[in-house]
C-alpha cells in the first residue's frame, strides 16, 4: 500500500470562503482523496494531526498568537501554499490598518473591547510577511480550477504555474466590452489574471482581488483612472481595497 502525502488546511483571519471553494469541488474530491490524506480541515472534519507535508493557509495574520501558530506550521510543512487574497496579499482585512487598533477594538466590542486580551488585534498582514511561502493561489475567493491545478502540480512534483498577465487579457478572451467605454473604471490592467475576468463578465468591474501582476505599471494606470474622472482620493481608495497592506498603517501596535 502506497503512503499518501498528508495535507493540512489552516484558517487564520478570514471568512473561510476559500476553504468553502475547496469543499465545493465535490466532483473532484473523491479522486483527490485517492492521492492525498487530509489531516486537518476545520470546516470539514474534527480530527486534527500535526503530521503533514503540505500546509494550505487561508486568512491573514491579525493577532499576535497567529504569528506563533504560523511559524510552527512553517517548521512542520515542507511546502506552504497561501490560499486566497487574505493570505497572499493581506486582502480586505488590511482595510482596518488605516485606523488605530484601540479605536477598532472599541468600535467592534464596545468600551469593554480594551479590557480583554481575547480582543487584542494587530494590523492585518499577508502570511509572507511572517514566513516563507512556496506557492500562491490568488483570488477572493480562489477559483476552484486554480486550486486543482496547483494541487495536481504539487502531486506530480512539478512547479505550479502562476498566471502573470493582467485581467484585461482574460477579459478580451471572454469577449467583454471594456468598462472604460461605458464610463466606469477598473483595475484589470494591473491585476493578475486567472479568474476569467468573471466580475466584468457578470456586469461589475475588477477590484484587484488577485493582487497585482509582477511589475505592474501602477503609475500609468493611476493616470488613466484620473483621466477617467476619479479624484486622487478615489484612486487611492480603489487601489487599497485589496492592496491596503502596502499602505502605511496608522497603528503603533
Ligand atoms: S480571500 Fe476572500 S473568500 Fe478567501 S477567506 Fe479571504 S475574504 Fe474569504
Ligand atoms: S473591463 Fe477592465 S479588465 Fe476588461 S479590458 Fe477593460 S480595463 Fe481591462
Ligand atoms: S475580475 Fe478582478 S476582482 Fe474579479 S475575480 Fe478577477 S481579479 Fe478578482
Mean pLDDT: 93
Q: What is the assigned CATH homologous superfamily of the largest domain?
A: NADH:ubiquinone oxidoreductase-like, 20kDa subunit
What share of residues are in beta strands?
A: 5-15%
- How many beta strands in the DSSP annotation? 5
Your description of this structure?
The protein has two domains: 6-156, Rossmann fold (3-Layer(aba) Sandwich); 167-246, no CATH class. It has 253 residues and is an alpha/beta fold. The chain has helices at 17-23, 29-35, 64-76, 85-89, 101-109, 144-156, 167-173, 198-201, 218-227, 232-243, and strands at residues 6-11, 37-41, 54-58, 79-83, 135-137. It contains ten helices and five strands, in the order E-H-H-E-E-H-E-H-H-E-H-H-H-H-H. A five-stranded parallel sheet has the order 2-1-3-4-5. It starts with 5 loop residues before the first strand and ends in a 10-residue tail after the last helix. One iron/sulfur cluster is lined by residues 14-18, 58-59, 84-86, 91-92, 140-141. One iron/sulfur cluster binds at residues 167-168, 171, 176, 178-180, 186, 188-189, 197, 200, 206.
Amino acid at each position: 500500500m502506497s503512503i499518501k502525502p498528508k495535507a493540512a488546511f489552516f484558517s487564520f483571519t478570514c471568512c473561510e470562503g476559500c476553504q468553502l471553494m475547496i469543499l465545493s469541488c465535490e466532483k473532484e474530491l473523491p479522486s483527490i482523496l485517492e492521492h492525498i490524506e487530509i489531516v486537518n480541515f476545520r470546516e470539514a472534519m474534527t480530527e486534527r494531526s500535526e503530521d503533514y507535508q503540505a500546509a494550505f493557509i487561508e486568512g491573514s495574520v491579525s493577532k499576535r498568537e497567529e504569528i506563533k501558530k504560523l511559524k510552527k506550521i512553517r517548521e512542520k510543512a515542507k511546502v506552504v501554499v497561501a490560499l486566497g487574497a487574505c493570505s497572499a496579499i493581506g486582502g480586505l482585512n488590511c482595510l482596518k490598518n488605516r485606523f488605530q487598533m484601540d479605536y477598532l477594538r472599541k468600535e467592534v466590542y464596545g468600551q469593554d473591547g480594551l479590557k480583554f486580551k481575547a480582543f487584542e488585534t494587530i494590523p492585518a498582514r499577508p502570511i509572507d510577511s511572517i514566513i516563507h511561502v512556496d506557492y500562491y493561489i490568488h483570488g477572493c475567493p480562489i477559483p476552484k480550477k486554480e486550486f486543482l491545478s496547483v494541487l495536481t502540480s504539487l502531486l506530480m512534483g512539478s512547479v505550479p504555474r502562476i498566471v502573470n498577465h493582467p485581467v484585461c487579457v482574460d477579459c478580451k478572451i471572454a469577449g467583454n466590452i471594456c468598462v472604460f467605454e461605458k464610463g466606469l473604471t477598473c483595475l484589470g490592467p494591473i491585476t493578475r489574471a486567472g479568474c476569467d475576468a468573471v466580475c466584468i463578465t457578470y456586469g461589475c468591474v475588477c477590484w484587484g482581488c488577485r493582487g497585482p501582476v509582477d511589475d505592474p505599471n501602477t503609475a500609468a494606470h493611476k493616470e488613466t483612472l484620473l483621466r477617467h474622472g476619479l479624484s486622487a482620493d478615489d484612486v487611492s481608495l480603489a487601489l487599497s481595497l485589496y492592496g491596503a497592506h502596502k499602505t502605511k498603517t496608522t497603528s503603533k501596535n
